[in-house]
Amino acid sequence: MKGSVRKPRTEGGTWSYRLDLGLDDRGRRRQQEVGGFRTKKDAQAALNEALADRQRGTYAPPSKATVQSFLDEWHQGVRTELALTAWTNYGQIIRRNINPYLGSKRLTDLSPIDVKRWHGVLLESGRRDGGALSVASVKLAHRILRRALADAVRWNLIVTNPAAATRVPKGEPKELTVWSADDARRFLDALADDRLIGLWTLALHTGLRRGELAGLRWSDVDLGAGTLTVAQQRTTANHQVVITTPKAKSQRQLLLAPATIAALRAHLNRQRQERLALGPDWTDSGYVFADEAGVEYHPHRFTKMFEDAVKKTGVPKIRLHDTRHTMASLALEAGVHPKVVQEQLGHSAIAVTLDTYSHVPQAVKRDSADKIAGLFGD
After folding, report:
1. What is the CA angle 303-308-314, rounded to 5?
2. Which one, of 174, 268, 173, lies nearest residue 216 by Cα?
3. Once rounded to an integer, what is the mean pLDDT over residues 159-175?
Protein backbone atom coordinates (compact mmCIF):
# COMPACT_ATOMS: atom_id res chain seq x y z
CA MET A 1 0.00 0.00 0.00
CA LYS A 2 1.31 3.38 -0.97
CA GLY A 3 0.45 7.00 -0.40
CA SER A 4 1.98 10.44 -0.70
CA VAL A 5 1.50 13.93 0.65
CA ARG A 6 1.11 16.70 -1.91
CA LYS A 7 1.93 20.39 -1.64
CA PRO A 8 -0.70 23.07 -2.23
CA ARG A 9 -1.13 23.70 -5.95
CA THR A 10 -1.62 27.43 -5.48
CA GLU A 11 -0.42 30.00 -3.01
CA GLY A 12 -2.64 29.90 0.04
CA GLY A 13 -4.00 26.47 -0.95
CA THR A 14 -4.29 23.40 1.25
CA TRP A 15 -2.26 20.24 1.58
CA SER A 16 -3.62 16.90 0.37
CA TYR A 17 -2.70 13.27 0.26
CA ARG A 18 -3.05 10.67 -2.48
CA LEU A 19 -3.76 7.05 -1.56
CA ASP A 20 -3.16 4.10 -3.87
CA LEU A 21 -6.26 1.83 -3.82
CA GLY A 22 -4.83 -0.90 -6.03
CA LEU A 23 -6.28 -2.21 -9.31
CA ASP A 24 -9.95 -2.24 -10.29
CA ASP A 25 -11.77 -5.11 -12.04
CA ARG A 26 -10.32 -4.02 -15.39
CA GLY A 27 -6.76 -3.86 -14.13
CA ARG A 28 -6.66 -0.08 -13.94
CA ARG A 29 -4.95 1.59 -11.02
CA ARG A 30 -7.26 3.45 -8.63
CA GLN A 31 -6.19 6.43 -6.55
CA GLN A 32 -8.03 8.57 -4.04
CA GLU A 33 -6.99 12.16 -3.37
CA VAL A 34 -8.18 13.93 -0.23
CA GLY A 35 -7.47 17.59 0.38
CA GLY A 36 -8.32 20.44 2.69
CA PHE A 37 -5.47 20.08 5.25
CA ARG A 38 -3.88 23.24 6.62
CA THR A 39 -0.41 21.79 7.11
CA LYS A 40 1.79 19.02 5.78
CA LYS A 41 1.70 17.45 9.24
CA ASP A 42 -2.12 17.27 9.17
CA ALA A 43 -2.10 15.69 5.73
CA GLN A 44 0.52 13.13 6.76
CA ALA A 45 -1.45 12.19 9.90
CA ALA A 46 -4.61 11.67 7.84
CA LEU A 47 -2.68 9.60 5.30
CA ASN A 48 -1.22 7.43 8.07
CA GLU A 49 -4.70 6.82 9.46
CA ALA A 50 -6.04 5.93 6.02
CA LEU A 51 -3.16 3.51 5.45
CA ALA A 52 -3.83 1.88 8.81
CA ASP A 53 -7.52 1.53 7.95
CA ARG A 54 -6.57 -0.04 4.64
CA GLN A 55 -4.35 -2.49 6.49
CA ARG A 56 -7.25 -3.42 8.80
CA GLY A 57 -9.71 -3.60 5.91
CA THR A 58 -11.89 -0.82 7.36
CA TYR A 59 -11.11 1.96 4.89
CA ALA A 60 -13.88 3.65 2.93
CA PRO A 61 -12.93 6.41 0.47
CA PRO A 62 -14.23 9.83 1.60
CA SER A 63 -17.36 10.84 -0.25
CA LYS A 64 -19.59 13.90 -0.33
CA ALA A 65 -22.59 11.81 -1.35
CA THR A 66 -25.67 12.31 0.81
CA VAL A 67 -28.01 9.56 1.95
CA GLN A 68 -30.63 10.90 -0.46
CA SER A 69 -28.37 11.03 -3.51
CA PHE A 70 -27.16 7.51 -2.77
CA LEU A 71 -30.66 6.09 -2.20
CA ASP A 72 -32.03 7.70 -5.34
CA GLU A 73 -29.24 6.20 -7.43
CA TRP A 74 -29.48 2.86 -5.61
CA HIS A 75 -33.23 2.69 -6.22
CA GLN A 76 -32.74 3.11 -9.95
CA GLY A 77 -30.07 0.40 -9.89
CA VAL A 78 -32.29 -2.28 -8.30
CA ARG A 79 -35.08 -1.84 -10.87
CA THR A 80 -34.23 -5.16 -12.54
CA GLU A 81 -34.00 -7.02 -9.23
CA LEU A 82 -37.54 -6.33 -8.03
CA ALA A 83 -41.08 -6.80 -9.26
CA LEU A 84 -42.45 -3.53 -10.62
CA THR A 85 -44.94 -3.11 -7.78
CA ALA A 86 -42.25 -3.75 -5.16
CA TRP A 87 -39.84 -1.36 -6.88
CA THR A 88 -42.51 1.35 -7.00
CA ASN A 89 -43.31 0.79 -3.33
CA TYR A 90 -39.61 1.07 -2.44
CA GLY A 91 -39.46 4.43 -4.20
CA GLN A 92 -42.50 5.76 -2.34
CA ILE A 93 -41.10 4.69 1.03
CA ILE A 94 -37.70 6.22 0.27
CA ARG A 95 -39.33 9.52 -0.73
CA ARG A 96 -41.84 9.64 2.12
CA ASN A 97 -40.22 7.92 5.08
CA ILE A 98 -36.45 8.02 4.62
CA ASN A 99 -35.21 11.00 2.60
CA PRO A 100 -37.13 13.70 4.53
CA TYR A 101 -35.44 12.58 7.77
CA LEU A 102 -32.03 11.19 6.80
CA GLY A 103 -31.53 12.36 3.23
CA SER A 104 -29.48 15.46 3.94
CA LYS A 105 -26.85 13.63 5.99
CA ARG A 106 -23.59 12.70 4.33
CA LEU A 107 -23.61 8.97 3.66
CA THR A 108 -20.30 8.42 5.43
CA ASP A 109 -21.55 10.29 8.51
CA LEU A 110 -24.74 8.26 9.03
CA SER A 111 -24.55 6.49 12.39
CA PRO A 112 -26.62 3.89 14.29
CA ILE A 113 -27.87 6.62 16.62
CA ASP A 114 -29.15 8.57 13.60
CA VAL A 115 -31.08 5.49 12.51
CA LYS A 116 -32.45 4.96 16.01
CA ARG A 117 -33.63 8.57 16.25
CA TRP A 118 -35.24 8.20 12.84
CA HIS A 119 -37.23 5.22 14.15
CA GLY A 120 -38.50 7.35 17.01
CA VAL A 121 -39.61 10.22 14.78
CA LEU A 122 -41.48 7.87 12.45
CA LEU A 123 -43.21 6.13 15.35
CA GLU A 124 -44.28 9.49 16.76
CA SER A 125 -45.23 11.51 13.65
CA GLY A 126 -44.19 9.67 10.52
CA ARG A 127 -47.55 9.57 8.77
CA ARG A 128 -48.35 12.16 6.13
CA ASP A 129 -51.06 13.59 8.39
CA GLY A 130 -48.59 13.91 11.26
CA GLY A 131 -49.82 10.84 13.11
CA ALA A 132 -47.80 7.86 14.30
CA LEU A 133 -46.51 5.47 11.66
CA SER A 134 -47.22 1.82 12.43
CA VAL A 135 -44.47 -0.45 13.67
CA ALA A 136 -44.89 -2.60 10.56
CA SER A 137 -44.33 0.43 8.30
CA VAL A 138 -41.24 1.48 10.26
CA LYS A 139 -39.87 -2.05 9.98
CA LEU A 140 -40.39 -2.02 6.23
CA ALA A 141 -38.64 1.35 5.84
CA HIS A 142 -35.78 0.06 8.00
CA ARG A 143 -35.49 -3.09 5.90
CA ILE A 144 -35.18 -1.03 2.71
CA LEU A 145 -32.55 1.25 4.24
CA ARG A 146 -30.61 -1.72 5.57
CA ARG A 147 -30.62 -3.42 2.17
CA ALA A 148 -29.43 -0.27 0.42
CA LEU A 149 -26.66 0.37 2.94
CA ALA A 150 -25.52 -3.23 2.66
CA ASP A 151 -24.83 -2.49 -1.00
CA ALA A 152 -22.99 0.70 0.03
CA VAL A 153 -20.70 -1.42 2.22
CA ARG A 154 -20.14 -3.92 -0.58
CA TRP A 155 -19.23 -1.06 -2.94
CA ASN A 156 -16.76 0.36 -0.38
CA LEU A 157 -18.74 3.59 0.00
CA ILE A 158 -19.03 3.07 3.77
CA VAL A 159 -17.21 0.79 6.20
CA THR A 160 -20.14 -0.56 8.19
CA ASN A 161 -23.91 -0.64 7.85
CA PRO A 162 -25.45 1.61 10.54
CA ALA A 163 -28.91 0.12 9.93
CA ALA A 164 -27.59 -3.39 10.58
CA ALA A 165 -26.27 -2.22 13.94
CA THR A 166 -29.68 -0.85 14.98
CA ARG A 167 -32.51 -2.93 16.38
CA VAL A 168 -35.83 -2.51 14.68
CA PRO A 169 -38.77 -1.42 16.84
CA LYS A 170 -40.77 -4.15 18.50
CA GLY A 171 -44.51 -4.29 18.43
CA GLU A 172 -47.34 -6.74 18.80
CA PRO A 173 -48.02 -8.50 15.49
CA LYS A 174 -51.20 -7.24 13.90
CA GLU A 175 -54.00 -9.73 14.34
CA LEU A 176 -55.36 -10.89 11.00
CA THR A 177 -59.02 -10.31 10.25
CA VAL A 178 -60.55 -13.48 8.87
CA TRP A 179 -63.92 -15.08 8.45
CA SER A 180 -64.98 -18.22 10.20
CA ALA A 181 -66.06 -21.13 8.03
CA ASP A 182 -69.68 -20.20 8.83
CA ASP A 183 -69.11 -16.58 7.74
CA ALA A 184 -67.61 -17.73 4.45
CA ARG A 185 -70.50 -20.13 3.77
CA ARG A 186 -73.08 -17.43 4.54
CA PHE A 187 -71.30 -15.04 2.18
CA LEU A 188 -71.23 -17.51 -0.72
CA ASP A 189 -74.79 -18.74 -0.09
CA ALA A 190 -76.15 -15.19 -0.05
CA LEU A 191 -74.49 -14.48 -3.41
CA ALA A 192 -75.44 -17.75 -5.10
CA ASP A 193 -77.12 -15.86 -7.97
CA ASP A 194 -74.58 -13.05 -8.16
CA ARG A 195 -72.89 -12.57 -11.53
CA LEU A 196 -69.46 -12.79 -9.88
CA ILE A 197 -70.09 -15.72 -7.55
CA GLY A 198 -67.34 -17.55 -9.44
CA LEU A 199 -64.87 -14.82 -8.49
CA TRP A 200 -65.75 -14.90 -4.80
CA THR A 201 -65.72 -18.71 -4.75
CA LEU A 202 -62.30 -18.84 -6.38
CA ALA A 203 -60.88 -16.21 -4.02
CA LEU A 204 -62.02 -18.09 -0.92
CA HIS A 205 -61.18 -21.56 -2.21
CA THR A 206 -57.68 -20.79 -3.49
CA GLY A 207 -56.42 -17.67 -1.67
CA LEU A 208 -55.32 -15.99 -4.90
CA ARG A 209 -54.07 -12.41 -4.59
CA ARG A 210 -56.06 -9.56 -6.15
CA GLY A 211 -53.49 -9.13 -8.93
CA GLU A 212 -53.62 -12.85 -9.67
CA LEU A 213 -57.42 -12.80 -9.88
CA ALA A 214 -57.32 -9.73 -12.12
CA GLY A 215 -54.69 -11.31 -14.38
CA LEU A 216 -56.30 -14.75 -14.69
CA ARG A 217 -57.06 -15.78 -18.30
CA TRP A 218 -59.14 -18.66 -19.54
CA SER A 219 -55.97 -19.98 -21.16
CA ASP A 220 -54.60 -20.42 -17.61
CA VAL A 221 -57.52 -22.64 -16.57
CA ASP A 222 -58.09 -26.28 -17.53
CA LEU A 223 -61.52 -27.20 -16.21
CA GLY A 224 -61.26 -30.73 -17.60
CA ALA A 225 -58.05 -31.43 -15.68
CA GLY A 226 -59.17 -29.31 -12.74
CA THR A 227 -56.07 -27.11 -12.71
CA LEU A 228 -55.30 -23.40 -12.65
CA THR A 229 -51.91 -21.88 -13.48
CA VAL A 230 -50.83 -18.58 -11.92
CA ALA A 231 -48.78 -17.20 -14.81
CA GLN A 232 -49.30 -13.44 -14.60
CA GLN A 233 -50.80 -10.70 -12.46
CA ARG A 234 -52.39 -7.36 -13.26
CA THR A 235 -51.54 -4.70 -10.71
CA THR A 236 -51.05 -0.94 -10.57
CA ALA A 237 -47.81 1.04 -10.45
CA ASN A 238 -47.57 4.81 -10.69
CA HIS A 239 -51.34 4.89 -11.34
CA GLN A 240 -50.98 2.65 -14.38
CA VAL A 241 -52.21 -0.92 -14.84
CA VAL A 242 -49.25 -3.22 -15.45
CA ILE A 243 -49.01 -6.90 -16.30
CA THR A 244 -46.12 -8.69 -14.66
CA THR A 245 -44.82 -12.21 -14.20
CA PRO A 246 -44.99 -13.33 -10.56
CA LYS A 247 -41.82 -14.22 -8.67
CA ALA A 248 -40.70 -17.82 -9.05
CA LYS A 249 -42.50 -19.16 -5.97
CA SER A 250 -45.69 -17.30 -6.92
CA GLN A 251 -45.76 -18.97 -10.33
CA ARG A 252 -47.63 -22.13 -9.49
CA GLN A 253 -50.26 -24.60 -10.62
CA LEU A 254 -53.23 -25.22 -8.33
CA LEU A 255 -55.49 -28.25 -8.21
CA LEU A 256 -59.12 -27.18 -8.08
CA ALA A 257 -61.79 -28.79 -5.93
CA PRO A 258 -65.00 -30.01 -7.66
CA ALA A 259 -66.98 -27.12 -6.11
CA THR A 260 -64.47 -24.61 -7.49
CA ILE A 261 -64.59 -26.21 -10.94
CA ALA A 262 -68.38 -26.11 -10.89
CA ALA A 263 -68.39 -22.42 -9.98
CA LEU A 264 -65.95 -21.57 -12.78
CA ARG A 265 -67.89 -23.66 -15.29
CA ALA A 266 -71.08 -21.79 -14.39
CA HIS A 267 -69.20 -18.50 -14.72
CA LEU A 268 -67.94 -19.52 -18.18
CA ASN A 269 -71.47 -20.42 -19.31
CA ARG A 270 -72.76 -17.05 -18.10
CA GLN A 271 -69.96 -15.29 -19.98
CA ARG A 272 -70.82 -17.19 -23.16
CA GLN A 273 -74.46 -16.09 -22.86
CA GLU A 274 -73.33 -12.46 -22.47
CA ARG A 275 -71.16 -12.86 -25.57
CA LEU A 276 -74.07 -14.19 -27.61
CA ALA A 277 -76.30 -11.35 -26.41
CA LEU A 278 -73.83 -8.63 -27.47
CA GLY A 279 -72.66 -10.25 -30.68
CA PRO A 280 -70.07 -8.08 -32.48
CA ASP A 281 -70.02 -5.59 -29.59
CA TRP A 282 -68.44 -8.19 -27.33
CA THR A 283 -64.75 -7.71 -26.47
CA ASP A 284 -62.78 -10.95 -26.30
CA SER A 285 -60.21 -9.91 -23.68
CA GLY A 286 -59.51 -13.50 -22.71
CA TYR A 287 -59.79 -12.70 -18.99
CA VAL A 288 -61.82 -14.92 -16.69
CA PHE A 289 -63.28 -12.01 -14.77
CA ALA A 290 -64.48 -9.26 -17.07
CA ASP A 291 -67.56 -7.06 -17.33
CA GLU A 292 -70.72 -7.87 -19.32
CA ALA A 293 -69.03 -6.62 -22.50
CA GLY A 294 -65.97 -8.81 -21.99
CA VAL A 295 -63.70 -5.92 -20.98
CA GLU A 296 -61.23 -6.69 -18.19
CA TYR A 297 -61.77 -4.93 -14.86
CA HIS A 298 -59.30 -2.43 -13.42
CA PRO A 299 -57.60 -4.17 -10.44
CA HIS A 300 -59.00 -1.56 -8.04
CA ARG A 301 -62.50 -2.47 -9.21
CA PHE A 302 -62.16 -5.90 -7.62
CA THR A 303 -61.73 -4.25 -4.22
CA LYS A 304 -64.82 -2.05 -4.67
CA MET A 305 -66.97 -4.94 -5.92
CA PHE A 306 -65.94 -7.05 -2.93
CA GLU A 307 -66.78 -4.24 -0.51
CA ASP A 308 -70.23 -3.96 -2.10
CA ALA A 309 -70.75 -7.73 -1.91
CA VAL A 310 -69.84 -7.80 1.79
CA LYS A 311 -72.29 -4.98 2.56
CA LYS A 312 -75.00 -6.79 0.60
CA THR A 313 -74.63 -10.03 2.55
CA GLY A 314 -74.23 -8.56 6.04
CA VAL A 315 -71.27 -10.74 7.03
CA PRO A 316 -68.42 -9.21 9.08
CA LYS A 317 -66.45 -6.64 7.11
CA ILE A 318 -63.06 -7.80 5.79
CA ARG A 319 -60.80 -6.75 2.90
CA LEU A 320 -60.54 -8.69 -0.35
CA HIS A 321 -56.98 -9.67 0.65
CA ASP A 322 -58.43 -11.15 3.85
CA THR A 323 -60.14 -13.87 1.80
CA ARG A 324 -56.58 -15.13 1.26
CA HIS A 325 -55.96 -15.10 5.01
CA THR A 326 -59.32 -16.78 5.57
CA MET A 327 -58.50 -19.64 3.21
CA ALA A 328 -55.08 -20.21 4.81
CA SER A 329 -56.41 -20.04 8.37
CA LEU A 330 -59.27 -22.43 7.70
CA ALA A 331 -56.96 -24.82 5.87
CA LEU A 332 -54.52 -24.94 8.77
CA GLU A 333 -57.36 -25.35 11.25
CA ALA A 334 -58.62 -28.27 9.18
CA GLY A 335 -55.24 -29.97 9.50
CA VAL A 336 -53.85 -29.24 6.03
CA HIS A 337 -50.04 -29.46 6.17
CA PRO A 338 -48.38 -26.00 6.27
CA LYS A 339 -46.18 -26.97 3.31
CA VAL A 340 -49.27 -27.49 1.20
CA VAL A 341 -50.69 -24.16 2.33
CA GLN A 342 -47.36 -22.46 1.53
CA GLU A 343 -47.38 -23.81 -2.02
CA GLN A 344 -51.05 -22.91 -2.45
CA LEU A 345 -50.39 -19.31 -1.41
CA GLY A 346 -47.14 -18.98 -3.33
CA HIS A 347 -45.11 -18.01 -0.26
CA SER A 348 -41.34 -17.97 -0.73
CA ALA A 349 -40.75 -20.20 2.31
CA ILE A 350 -42.76 -22.21 4.80
CA ALA A 351 -41.47 -19.89 7.56
CA VAL A 352 -43.46 -17.04 5.98
CA THR A 353 -46.62 -19.12 6.18
CA LEU A 354 -46.01 -20.18 9.77
CA ASP A 355 -45.16 -16.62 10.89
CA THR A 356 -48.15 -15.10 9.12
CA TYR A 357 -50.64 -17.60 10.50
CA SER A 358 -49.28 -18.04 14.00
CA HIS A 359 -52.76 -17.07 15.24
CA VAL A 360 -54.23 -20.52 14.49
CA PRO A 361 -56.37 -21.30 17.54
CA GLN A 362 -55.17 -23.26 20.53
CA ALA A 363 -57.78 -25.88 19.70
CA VAL A 364 -55.71 -26.91 16.68
CA LYS A 365 -52.61 -27.29 18.85
CA ARG A 366 -54.64 -29.23 21.39
CA ASP A 367 -55.93 -31.54 18.67
CA SER A 368 -52.35 -32.16 17.52
CA ALA A 369 -51.25 -32.91 21.07
CA ASP A 370 -54.11 -35.39 21.49
CA LYS A 371 -53.21 -37.13 18.23
CA ILE A 372 -49.56 -37.42 19.25
CA ALA A 373 -50.48 -38.82 22.67
CA GLY A 374 -52.87 -41.26 20.97
CA LEU A 375 -49.95 -42.83 19.15
CA PHE A 376 -48.78 -44.26 22.48
CA GLY A 377 -52.07 -45.72 23.59
CA ASP A 378 -55.23 -44.51 25.36
Report:
1. 125
2. 268
3. 80
